[in-house]
Amino acid sequence: MTLGNYFGNIYKGLKSLAAGMRLTGLYFVRRGDSLTQEYPENRESLKLAERFRGEVVMPHNESNEHRCTGCTACELACPNGSIKILTKFVVNEEGKKKKAIDTFVYHLDTCTMCNLCIVACPTDAIIMANNFEHSVFDRTKLLKVLNKPESKIMTGVE
Amino acid sequence: MILSIYNFTSLTDKFHNFLLAHMSEGIVLATELIVTGLLVITFVAVLAMVLIYLERKVAAYMQLRLGPNRVGIYGTGQVVADVLKLVLKEGITPDGADKLMFNLAPYVVLSTCMMALAPIAFGNGLVLWDLNIGVLYITSITSLGVIGILIAGWSSNNKYSMLGAMRSGAQIVSYELSAGLCIISIVVLSGSMQISDIVNSQADGWWIFKGHIPVIIAFVIFIIAATAELNRAPFDLAEAESELTAGFHTEYSGMKFAMFFLAEYINMFVLCAMAATLFLGGWMPFHIGHWTSFNNVMDYIPSPLWFFGKTFFIIFIIMWFRWTFPRLRVDQLLDLEWKYLLPISMVNLLAIALMNILGWHF
Amino acid sequence: MLNASTLLLIPLLPLFSFLFITFFGKKHLPKASGIISVFILGVSTLLSLAVAYNYFFVVGMTNGIYQAISPMKLEWLRFSPGLSIDMGIILDPISVMMLVVVTFISLMVHIYSLGYMKGEERFAVYYSFLDLFTFSMLGLVIATNLFQMYFFWELVGVSSYLLIGYYFTKPSAVAAAKKAFIVTRFADLGFLIGILILSFHAGTLDIQTLIARLTTSDTTFYASATFTGFMGASSLTWGLALVFIGGAGKSAMFPLHIWLPDAMEGPTPVSALIHAATMVVAGVYLVARLFPVYAISSPHLLEIIGYIGIISSALAAIIACTQTDIKRVLAYSTISQIGYMLAALGVSQYGGLNGEGFSASMFHLFTHAFFKALLFLCAGSVIHYVHSNEVKDMGGLRKKMPITHLCFLLACLAIAGIPPLSGFFSKEEILASAFAHNQTIFYIAWLTAGLTSFYMFRLYFLTFWNKEYLSHHDTHEHHSEGSWNMKLPLIILMLGAVGAGFVPFHQLVTSDCQPYESEFHLNITLMAVGLSLFAIIIATIFYRKKNNLSDKISNNISQLYNFAYHKFYFDEMYQFVSQKILFNVVGAFSSWFDKKIVNGAVNTTAFLTEAFSETIKPVQSGKVQGYALAFLFGILGLIVILFFF
Amino acid sequence: MTAYQIWFYIIASMILGGALLAVTARKIFRAAIALLVSLIGIAALYYWMHYEFIAAVQTIVYVGGIVVLIIFSIFLTHNPGHTIEEPVSIREAFAFTGCFAGFAFVFSLLNRYSFEQTGDALNHTMQVADVGRALLSTGNGSYLLPFEAVSLLLLAAMVGCIVIAIKIRTHK
Amino acid sequence: MIDQVPLTHILFLSTALFFIGAYGFLTRRNMITMLMSVELILNSVNINLVAFNRYLHPNIDGVIFTLFIITIAAAEAAVAIAIIISLYRKINSIDPEQVDELKF
């Protein structure tokens, strides 16, 4: 190590010291942009990010129709076995017997929000909602059926 | 000297004379010891709570957070709650531990750092024991604290504890050198090791202003070395969570852990008070040379306010450090001490001695 | 100019160069160290030339006598009030002359080696050795003190050992270095004893004081030196004889000449420097340095020296006629010429014209340095060209190496004593002085001069005429005869060899430092030159063209020829004496004595001690606490004794 | 019994108790801590004698230096729970006898000798500056040469320690 | 004041400390504890020097000697521990009974 190196190191050390302390000092002084949310108070105005994954939901349109064909791709994709699809056969307008979902069972308690089911779904029947207040007093309440009662598959979805 | 308006000597003298009037000398001594002991314990407890609160707030603000803000006004009650939790928790002693030593260690650590408070002048005349080797005494007592840490590390019968204790011990012992050299440089300038002398020598300006660049270098080195001696980030290898869980106090819980925690903060206070005393004039108000009127105005601010103001400023700097820099590696730590701080502080000490001999300081 | 600081620079510059190359140049400037040391030595040479000019023509002469100037004398080791070892500088005619010779020849060799040694792996080391040698030789030359002289004498021996053994990967070179070292060291033992004897009697080691005390017959020193005797000779004579043995060893005189031919294993420039021009004349210089003592106090010894010189000269000349290795011929020629110088000293007396021999000897030393260095360097060029030492590999080189050829021819003429070349003048003086004082020596010297011409021209013709040279790399034509730095020293030395004879030595260097008028002896000149010319003619007949005349002659006198060819079996004799007599008889006995008596006594003592120690060794338990306990009880015991008894 | 005497006997018992434990404890770490107690007691004794400077030096060097060093070496050469072997009993007996005899002897000697105390010495206060001046001046009652010699000794010890304890890496 | 305790008591203390140290040095089967005993011995000497200085001689010679002894003790401890560590590396034990290479 040469002498120049030595003093160069000292200079670099002091410089990085000053730079780092300047940054944190600025943060310390700049009070406005605190990132902390005072949550229960601001529940009304709370905005979550678009991509926040809260739970899996199955959207229905106004005529109580969903897009799920009961193909069980999501069930296969789920690493935790959080999704269970029970199917039934329904007769459609043409009189053909066709497979359709009976109940779309979703275990929120074992779900890790990995998003694999959403990716696997060929018909975009399920999506991630950004609802995060899942606290319940009974564990059974975390077992959810996603398809609404009497719902049907949307026409045109194969 | 207008300084006398806030002189606490009269107060303590009054107390002493009052006691003397009623009891024999030995009892007076004992009483005074008990009173000061209680005062110190109270002070220490309050101080630690304040510092913990401060630390959390500073950390939060530097990380663009809010910090504790629920319990009490601005979260001040949070600390009390934490303390209560620690006090009420069960203290567990591991099976394979050396029980006596394991239980002894926190007391050693805590009592040493409380002993170090003795010669610190909190205000004009507000000092427990103004002995003639004040700074040397503090240095020696601080070095005692290592023993407690080593005892804790060994007696836990846990490899993480032991490694943490060894790292901590090595770190404290090595950084003590450069810290000691910086202390000596002020001793050289003020010509005394007595705290009151050192403070009085700054009546016409603090050393950091009077002593030009060498004293500023000494100050910076002292702050760095103090941070390292305190095992605080970025020098917290002794309790590096990712490597050693929590270092020497891994096995401690409840009140014993609280004592280590307390000791850590008191040590911080002691070292920062030292820095404030040595470089920023202790309780001495901000004076500029012979501007008498300005100095008089400054004297109206009570001396403990000055002292705590400076000390907390340095504590803030150390906290600022902590939340700015990542942890060093062991080799970087030792490089910093033995290759940089120690040689620089040695040369600096020479420079200061030269400066003192030639009378170059103000 | 003649102050100590300037003079000190002359030897110290080479020393500096040596140290510089050894500690720095070897690693960082492996190529440039040659140039550096040439430059440094050039400065040294210029200084010594300036010193010589100043001494001889400006300040040296006072009252018609060249005074010995001693500008520096540093007391180094003091034994008694009178006896001390000094380090100093002395300037008198012979030392100044030697300064010039040594620095000049050394410079030439340095320059020459730039070309000759180019590409050697240990190039820098070579130069550092050369510089060390030059330094020691200069130190020897300017020594004021016999012990200083001895000091540098040994240093010269060491550096010559290093240089001879330069190619240490060659076993023959190693053997030659060892041989040279052992033989000269053996002779140096004599020198040391001689120094001790002389200093014991003279009470001083300082050369000038010693000469003054041992030449004036009314001093107590002189009386004590001549009073005690051994085997019929006074101790002064013995001391001088022992000193001469040292000189004879260095100068390769009979019978200690055996190392010199072998020493030709070193690089050729080294041979030129050490074995022709400088180191080997150290013996002559030594005798010359103490010449007044020899001449005045012990003239018979001087006569013996003269005989030894001339016998060596004649023997070497005979051997030289039969050798086929070019360097060996030159080596024997060197022995012969040095013998000549010693013979000249031997026939000389102290003072005036009677001291002509001294002057002639120094003169020959001077001229010989030039032409012999030239001969060696030419031989080096030839060897460089043909990559062989043997004359049978050479021949007809005159067209391929014109400059070398011319130089060699002129050097041969010079050594043969053909006027007006340098050798003629010095030889003529030697012969004249011998004729005046000792007829026997004169005739042998005269015949030797003829032999000299014969073998030199034999060498010359065999190398440059005779058969046509064929490269042994037949396929491609050879490189040129050498780079400028090999030719330049040749030309300079050639000028020296031609012109050195015109230096008026009888005015500058004489036995009593006073100029004298020399006489010209026409008859001696005619005799010598005639014989030389005759010898040259014979050599021309024998060797100019390839023929078998020489073989016929040698066959006719095959006994003598073989005898001479085998160097008179000197090596074998030494071998016989050392191996058969010393090793087998004396050595065997002392070995037995050493093994049985000396060693036996020691072993018995050791055995008894061991047996005793066996009984007490358990006390040494190795346990430190036991020792401490013993210590404690010892102290308690002491206290008890102190307080209660 | 005055406060001074009480303090002295407390300190003395601390020193001797620590020392006894240090030489008898079977657990080496406890022995080290007992030594620490003894050394702190000695520092306290110096404070008691109003030699604050030497007391502080004692604390720094012995407690902060030597005991830490000893504890580190214990860390490096022992594992927790290890106990030291019993002493060699015959040697223990001899050692006890010898030490006891020595102590008895010195004890009787001290009992018989009366020291002449000077009031002057008892009131004398030592200034740290005096120590500094004595260490760095020449002349009567000054110690520049020993000071330099000791600094050389420390340097030599430092080099020696490094040389002894260094691990020589052998390249294969 | 300090003269309430006679000098002899301090000297008894230091004597006792000395012989405790000596006993430890002679009996401990562990080099580190032996070193500790040596420290005790050195300290007993220090006590003597300081006490004599306090009681008998109103100057600072005793203190300075004590300083020197402390310094040398530090050097000695460092060297001793270096030796102990290197010994431990070599024979994996610091029992003085096993270190008898110098036997016979």
Descriptive account of the structure:
The complex is a heteropentamer of chains A (158), B (362), C (645), D (172) and E (104). Chain A is an alpha+beta fold. Chain A has three helices and seven strands; from the N terminus they run αββαββαβββ. Chain A has two domains: 3-33; 55-153, Alpha-Beta Plaits, CATH 3.30.70. The longest helix of chain A is centred in the first third of the chain and has 27 residues, at 3-29. Chain A is elongated. Chain C has 645 residues and is mostly helical. Chain C has helices at 4-28, 33-59, 93-116, 123-141, 146-164, 171-202, 207-215, 220-227, 235-250, 259-262, 268-277, 282-289, 291-297, 299-322, 326-346, 356-386, 402-416, 422-437, 439-464, 484-499, 505-508, 522-543, 549-556, 558-565, 570-616, 624-644, and strands spanning 61-62, 65-66, 69-78, 84-91, 229-230, 233-234. The longest helix of chain C is centred in the C-terminal third of the chain and has 47 residues, at 570-616. Chain D contains seven helices and no strands. Chains in contact: A-B, B-D, C-D, C-E, D-E. Chains D and E meet through helix 1, helix 2, helix 3, helix 4 and helix 5 of D and helix 1, helix 2 and helix 3 of E.
Q: In CATH terms, what is the architecture of the largest domain in chain A?
A: 2-Layer Sandwich
The helicity of chain C comes to: over 70%
Strand pairing plus helix content of chain A: what structural class? Answer: alpha+beta
With strands numbered from the N-terminus, the spatial order across the biggest sheet of chain A is: 3-4-6
Shape of chain C: globular
Stretches with pLDDT under 50, minimum 5 residues of chain C: none
Instruction: Give the C-alpha Rg of chain C.
Output: 29 Å
Structural class of chain C: mainly alpha
Low-confidence stretches of chain A: none
Q: In percent, how much strand structure appears in the residues of chain C? A: under 5%
> What is the total number of structural domains of chain A?
2
**Multimeric state of these chains?**
heteropentamer
Most extensive interface, residues per chain?
D-E, 86 and 73 residues
Order of helices and strands of chain A: HEEHEEHEEE
Number of beta-strand segments of chain A: 7
Number of helices of chain A: 3
Instruction: Please estimate the helix content of chain A.
Output: 10-25%
What is the general shape of chain A?
Answer: elongated
Mean pLDDT of chain A: 83
What order do the helices and strands come in, and which of them pair?
The complex is a heteropentamer of chains A (158), B (362), C (645), D (172) and E (104).
Chain A: H1 3-29, E1 55-57, E2 65-66, H2 73-77, E3 83-91, E4 97-107, H3 116-120, E5 127-129, E6 143-145, E7 152-153
Parallel strand pairs in A: 2-7
Antiparallel strand pairs in A: 1-5, 3-4, 4-6
Chain C: H1 4-28, H2 33-59, E1 61-62, E2 65-66, E3 69-78, E4 84-91, H3 93-116, H4 123-141, H5 146-164, H6 171-202, H7 207-215, H8 220-227, E5 229-230, E6 233-234, H9 235-250, H10 259-262, H11 268-277, H12 282-289, H13 291-297, H14 299-322, H15 326-346, H16 356-386, H17 402-416, H18 422-437, H19 439-464, H20 484-499, H21 505-508, H22 522-543, H23 549-556, H24 558-565, H25 570-616, H26 624-644
Antiparallel strand pairs in C: 1-2, 3-4, 5-6
Helix pairs in contact in C: 1-2, 1-4, 2-3, 2-4, 3-4, 3-11, 3-16, 3-20, 4-5, 5-6, 6-9, 7-13, 9-12, 11-15, 11-16, 14-15, 14-19, 14-24, 15-16, 15-18, 15-19, 16-17, 16-18, 16-20, 17-19, 17-20, 18-19, 18-22, 19-22, 23-24
Chain D: H1 3-24, H2 28-48, H3 52-77, H4 89-112, H5 119-123, H6 128-135, H7 144-165
